[in-house]
Amino acid sequence: MKNKLIGVDIGGTNIKIGILTKDGKIIHKTSIPTYSIVGDAYMRPLHPPEKPQDIVKRLCDAVKNLCYKNKIKLSEIVKIGIGCPGPLNSKKGIIYSTPNLFGWENFPLKKCIERHLKIPTVVNNDANSATYGEYWLGAGKGYSTVVCFTLGTGIGGGIILNGKLFKGIDDSAGHFGHTTIVPDGPKCGCGNKGCLEALASAPNMVKRAISKIKNGTRTKLIVLSNGNLNTITAKMIHIAAIQGDKFAKELLAETGRYLGIAVANVLNILNPEIVIFSGGMIEAGDLLFKHIRKEAMKRALPQPAKRVKIVPAKLGNNAGIIGAAGLALVGDNI
Amino acid sequence: MKNKLIGVDIGGTNIKIGILTKDGKIIHKTSIPTYSIVGDAYMRPLHPPEKPQDIVKRLCDAVKNLCYKNKIKLSEIVKIGIGCPGPLNSKKGIIYSTPNLFGWENFPLKKCIERHLKIPTVVNNDANSATYGEYWLGAGKGYSTVVCFTLGTGIGGGIILNGKLFKGIDDSAGHFGHTTIVPDGPKCGCGNKGCLEALASAPNMVKRAISKIKNGTRTKLIVLSNGNLNTITAKMIHIAAIQGDKFAKELLAETGRYLGIAVANVLNILNPEIVIFSGGMIEAGDLLFKHIRKEAMKRALPQPAKRVKIVPAKLGNNAGIIGAAGLALVGDNI
Known about the structure:
Two copies of one chain form a homodimer.
Chain A: E1 4-10, E2 14-21, E3 26-33, H1 52-69, E4 77-84, E5 88-89, E6 94-95, H2 109-117, E7 121-125, H3 126-137, E8 146-151, E9 155-161, E10 164-165, H4 196-200, H5 202-214, H6 221-224, H7 234-242, H8 246-270, E11 274-278, H9 286-299, H10 302-307, E12 309-312, H11 319-330
Helix pairs in contact in A: 1-2, 3-11, 7-8, 8-9
């Protein structure tokens, strides 16, 4: 019986694969390394990068193995949904380029997978997939106008309007991470100055911390990192903040305020019902969210401010798989 | 034959009324004073403010007269579309409050007009009406994803997505004027700091000019205003800039850069095909647009930057009438 979906979440480090029921329940799951990343956060090569064709071959083998192991026939799979870093063309299933994946320029991902597996495949941006997952079965369930900020190495996002993913005219909508927050702020990877990502992403929060510590700020982070500042992480900042470290608390507060400005702008532009934050940083809980909410409420107009809920995501690492599968299921009805 | 529309554009100073064909051509037009404004830009009372009920009575009389004079029967009118300052509820046709209109709190505008004229009436936000007008028959004709910035006393805006007006969940989408551009910037009328409106609206550009002149800046504006700085207008700044006045040119350039930041944010969030600017300030032409475009291109991501056109509106003062009528015609199919 044709009643299952495959959801795939392609990341710089690994590829998560799931078999799902048509109502989005993950029944089996696996993960393979990507082997395509140019380097880690410090640009150290991790593995000889593979060509995208070879990665897709491994991906398809992993799908086949996962099905075989669980006694599911490929013929039971209705569709495959892929979430992939972009920019990309979701209609054609072509990846234009991805800063973190080596050699993926103009790569026909959809065609390549369909050739291997003979199953209709739908490709979408990774942040859009995660957003759709949260809308379909996560924190956004039951709402029709949903905005999601994805806090990873970078900051991405997605927009659901009237129950449909809004992609923009070139699959480039929802790039909240590259909205300008401080016009003369720090340089961003995109070339612009003062982007939200340059101010509030986990690596950039860590960078700010290290720079201030080097300038003499006293904080528990020095002890927690055994004096090796390069090992400081967002998680470590969270731990220090829980232990009452003022500097760490202020780092999270400042990051929350930057995110709050971006949220206020989105509220005044889109007037959504709910804004969801996903990614590792949301573990900081109210140490972060209190400041996001406060700044957003201060800056948004009364109507959109009164309406909106600002909440953490619910699906964790599964959002990408679930959303990719969900978007494959609804297909062009978007 | 039921084949005509009425479009109404309610402003703080006057109310514009038009009779249109169903394809949006204005065949007759009139205008009446609003008599509801609290005061002029300097808060001097202009006229004893009328109650909204009395204004609507005059509005309906003006509609009847316009029809009568032109030998059009009320029974030929399919629908009446109204553009009105908000916040408002477009489904119910209720105005929640309007900062510039006296006593309009929770006023049931739609019901009140329908009681007088017995013609189905549709109420929308004024900026949304102007946006829809430009989309339907102006600079946005032929595009499906359109953003419009309305540069008046304040800065408003509207969003057309896939050929439909996007209003947000409480009719509050498209408030580009209240997105934060400089977090610690000047105080805005809305209570927030550093809003686009506080930096780039015509009155605020004039305010900046006056403050700098008082601090000793030399400029032709002093002569053009006969030394009475309070008479400086955005138009006067434009004239000085055309005459080569460096200060005036830089005022427009600075205003353009602020607008450009807001445009870049909208491009990265919505990835539209076209961004339209309407309102008196667009007469400055390339003295303004060159800087809007340059700043937007610098800050937007490559895909949305490459795609978008940034252009002046085409319908001038008629956009509101045309758009209000158009939105009445499409009704809830939005």
